[in-house]
Amino acid sequence: MTELRLPQLGDVMTEGRLVAWVAADGAEVEAGQPLYELETDKVSFTVESPAAGVLRHVVPAGETVDVGTVVARLLGAAESVEVAATPAARRLARELGVDLAALGTGRRIREADVAAHHAATAPAAPAPVAAVAEAIPYRGRRRTIGERMLRSQRTAAPVTLHSEVRVDSALDLVDRLRERGVPLTLTRALVRACALALREHPTLNGRLLEDRIELSRTVDVGIAVDQEAGLIVPVLRGADALTLEEVARAARELARRAEAGGLAREDLDGATFTVSSLASTVVDAFTPIIDPPQVAIMGLGRVREVPAFEGSGVVRHRVTTLSLTFDHRATDGAPAARFLGRVAELLQRPEALA
Question: Can you name the CATH fold of 140-353?
Answer without folding.
Answer: Chloramphenicol Acetyltransferase (3.30.559)
